[in-house]
Protein backbone atom coordinates (compact mmCIF):
# COMPACT_ATOMS: atom_id res chain seq x y z
CA UNK A 1 0.00 0.00 0.00
CA UNK A 2 1.31 3.42 -0.97
CA UNK A 3 0.95 6.29 1.49
CA UNK A 4 -1.12 9.20 0.19
CA UNK A 5 1.56 11.67 1.32
CA UNK A 6 4.15 9.87 -0.85
CA UNK A 7 1.94 10.19 -3.93
CA UNK A 8 1.26 13.88 -3.27
CA UNK A 9 4.97 14.58 -2.75
CA UNK A 10 5.79 12.77 -5.97
CA UNK A 11 3.07 14.72 -7.82
CA UNK A 12 4.87 17.92 -6.82
CA UNK A 13 8.24 16.50 -7.90
CA UNK A 14 6.81 15.41 -11.25
CA UNK A 15 5.18 18.80 -11.79
CA UNK A 16 8.47 20.57 -11.07
CA UNK A 17 10.32 18.22 -13.42
CA UNK A 18 7.95 18.94 -16.29
CA UNK A 19 7.84 22.70 -15.57
CA UNK A 20 11.63 22.79 -15.69
CA UNK A 21 11.70 20.55 -18.78
CA UNK A 22 8.57 21.64 -20.70
CA UNK A 23 9.48 19.70 -23.86
CA UNK A 24 10.24 16.44 -22.05
CA UNK A 25 8.30 13.33 -23.00
CA UNK A 26 8.55 10.54 -20.42
CA UNK A 27 7.12 7.18 -19.46
CA UNK A 28 6.42 6.39 -15.82
CA UNK A 29 9.37 3.99 -15.86
CA UNK A 30 11.76 6.57 -17.30
CA UNK A 31 10.68 9.28 -14.87
CA UNK A 32 10.81 6.92 -11.89
CA UNK A 33 14.46 6.21 -12.71
CA UNK A 34 15.23 9.94 -13.06
CA UNK A 35 13.58 10.73 -9.71
CA UNK A 36 14.77 7.61 -7.89
CA UNK A 37 11.24 6.48 -7.06
CA UNK A 38 9.28 3.28 -7.63
CA UNK A 39 7.56 2.91 -10.99
CA UNK A 40 4.21 2.07 -9.37
CA UNK A 41 4.05 5.25 -7.29
CA UNK A 42 5.35 7.36 -10.18
CA UNK A 43 2.66 6.01 -12.49
CA UNK A 44 -0.01 6.76 -9.89
CA UNK A 45 1.24 10.34 -9.48
CA UNK A 46 1.47 10.89 -13.24
CA UNK A 47 -2.05 9.59 -13.79
CA UNK A 48 -3.39 12.00 -11.19
CA UNK A 49 -1.59 14.90 -12.87
CA UNK A 50 -3.09 13.84 -16.19
CA UNK A 51 -6.56 13.77 -14.60
CA UNK A 52 -5.96 17.35 -13.39
CA UNK A 53 -4.88 18.37 -16.93
CA UNK A 54 -1.39 19.29 -15.76
CA UNK A 55 0.06 16.56 -17.96
CA UNK A 56 -1.10 15.05 -21.22
CA UNK A 57 -1.18 11.26 -21.33
CA UNK A 58 -0.93 9.26 -24.55
CA UNK A 59 -1.32 5.49 -24.35
CA UNK A 60 -2.09 3.12 -21.53
CA UNK A 61 -0.23 1.21 -18.85
CA UNK A 62 3.55 0.97 -18.82
CA UNK A 63 3.76 2.26 -22.41
CA UNK A 64 1.89 5.50 -21.64
CA UNK A 65 3.79 8.66 -22.47
CA UNK A 66 3.38 11.84 -20.44
CA UNK A 67 4.18 15.44 -21.33
CA UNK A 68 3.59 18.84 -19.79
CA UNK A 69 0.53 20.87 -20.73
CA UNK A 70 1.54 24.49 -20.36
CA UNK A 71 -1.24 26.52 -18.76
CA UNK A 72 -3.02 29.09 -20.89
CA UNK A 73 -1.96 32.56 -19.90
CA UNK A 74 -3.84 35.54 -21.23
CA UNK A 75 -1.43 38.42 -21.72
CA UNK A 76 -3.83 41.05 -23.03
CA UNK A 77 -7.28 42.11 -21.88
CA UNK A 78 -9.70 43.92 -24.13
CA UNK A 79 -11.33 46.40 -21.76
CA UNK A 80 -13.79 47.47 -24.49
CA UNK A 81 -15.39 44.03 -24.31
CA UNK A 82 -16.83 44.94 -20.89
CA UNK A 83 -18.62 48.17 -21.95
Description:
The protein is α+β, with helices and mostly antiparallel strands and 83 residues long. It has a single domain, classed as Arc Repressor Mutant, subunit A (Orthogonal Bundle), CATH 1.10.10. The chain is built from three helices and three strands. α1 crosses α3 and α2 packs across α3. The longest helix is centred in the N-terminal third of the chain and has 17 residues. It starts with a helix and ends in a 15-residue tail after the last strand.
Under CATH, the topology is which? Arc Repressor Mutant, subunit A
Strand count: 3
Which second-level CATH architecture applies? Orthogonal Bundle
The overall pLDDT average reads 90
Radius of gyration: 16 Å
Q: Work out the oligomeric state of the chains in this entry.
A: single chain
CATH class: Mainly Alpha
- What spatial form do the alpha-carbon principal axes imply? elongated
Secondary-structure element string: HEHHEE
| Largest sheet, strands/sense/barrel | 3 strands, antiparallel
Cα(first) to Cα(last) distance is 56 Å
Supply the helix-strand structural class.
alpha+beta
**Number of structural units classed as domains:** 1
| The CATH superfamily title | Winged helix-like DNA-binding domain superfamily/Winged helix DNA-binding domain
The level of helicity is: 40-55%
* Uncertain spans: none
Organism: Paenibacillus bovis
Protein name: Transcriptional regulator
Amino acid sequence: MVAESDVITLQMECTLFFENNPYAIETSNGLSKRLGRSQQVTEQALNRLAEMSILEKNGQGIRAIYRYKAPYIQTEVDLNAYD
